[in-house]
Each structure stands twice: as C-alpha cells, then as structure tokens.
Amino acid sequence: MSNTAKLVISIVATVGIGLLGGIFTGPEIQTWFVHLQKPSWNPPNWLFAPVWSTLYLLMGIAFYLVWKSPEETDRKRWAIIIFIVQFALNFFWSFIFFREHQMGWAFVEIIVLWLAILCTIIAFSNINKTAAWLLVPYISWVSFAAILNYTIWQLNA
User: Fold this and answer.
1) pTM, full prediction
2) In terms of pLDDT, which residue wins out, 87 or 29?
C-alpha cells in the first residue's frame, strides 16, 4: 500500500470515526446538556466541533507516521493496538456522558482514556517523535475535558 493511501485512510478513519461520536452528542446538546449547571469557564458549545475535528486530524497524521514507519513489526503493532484502545475509549466517552447521562462513570472513563493517551504517546515516541508530539494537544484537551466533566458532575450531583 502506498504512503499516500495510508495517509488518506489514517485521516479519514480517525476524523470519520471520531466525528461519529457526534451521533451521541449532537441530539443531547439542546435537550439535556443545555439544562445542566456548568462552570463559568465552560467553553461555548460551538467550540467543541472544530477543536475535536482538529484533534482527530492530528491523531490521523500521528497514526499515519507510525503506520508508515519502517520500525520493527512487534513494536509498531503494539503502538497501533494502544492507539486503537485509546481511540475506542474516546468514542465511548461520548456515549457514557451524553447518551447515558452517566457523568460519574464518564469521569472514570476519561481518566482511563487519559492514561491510554499517555501510553499511546510513549509508544509512538519510541517509533516517531513527531507522531508523539502531535498527540500532545489531544492529551491537553482531554485533561481540560476531564476537569470540566468532573466539575459538571459535581455541579449537577
């Protein structure tokens, strides 16, 4: 497979699957989320889609850099598995928080997600430093999201 095909697949898959989580989020914004107590520092709702789209794009590029790497197969396979696990956790956070309205469980899940992202960054850094650095905005945003998740949970307990 050509590197161009790998790049396209990496970006389309991460952005596409990432935005698919919006099926749980979108309908709940105006029917459930809008009625929750939120901290004064809660970003406006319109900001989340462009931020997540950018983060999914960066994840796709990072994944591509690892996938195309000539690195030893087992090390690369392990990094890709860790990436897929964290990506699945990312997807299910939206389901737990928005679809199931389980803010406490969503907080637990986002902590596990954060740890999985950290493991992904470490695994990627052993293969391609740029790929690892491309995930730093992601773990930064998830750190903020975890604090926001916790605060909203506490305000609405």
Assistant:
1) 0.95
2) 87
Split at pLDDT 50, 70, 90, the class of 108 is very high
Tokens 């960054």, residue located: 121
Give Rg (Cα) of the chain: 16
- CB neighbour burial string for 116-149, b if at least 16 within 10 angstroms, e if fewer: bbebbbebbebbbeebbebbeebbebbeebbebb
Q: Which of 141, 144, 150, 142 is nearest to 108 (CA)?
A: 150
Under a CB-based contact definition with an 8 Å cutoff, are residues 64 and 1 in contact? no
137-143: long-range contacts, CB 8 A cutoff, minimum separation 24: 137/54, 137/55, 137/58, 138/55, 138/58, 138/59, 139/114, 141/51, 141/55, 142/110, 142/113, 142/114, 142/117, 143/114
Helices (H) and strands (E) in the chain — how many of each? 7, 0
User: Is the distance from CB of 14 to CB of 57 less than 8 angstroms?
Assistant: yes
**Domains, the chain, ranges and CATH?**
3-155 (1.20.1260.100)
The total of other beta-carbon atoms located within 10 Å of residue 37's CB is: 11
